Amino acid sequence: MTEILKKLKWPTLEQRRKQSRLTTMFKIQNETIAIPIPDYINRQSMKITRQYHPAKFRVVKTNSNVYKYSFYPRTIQDWNDLPSNILNITSTESFKTAISDHIMK
Question: How far separated are the first and last CA of the chain, in Å rounded?
Answer without folding.
Answer: 19
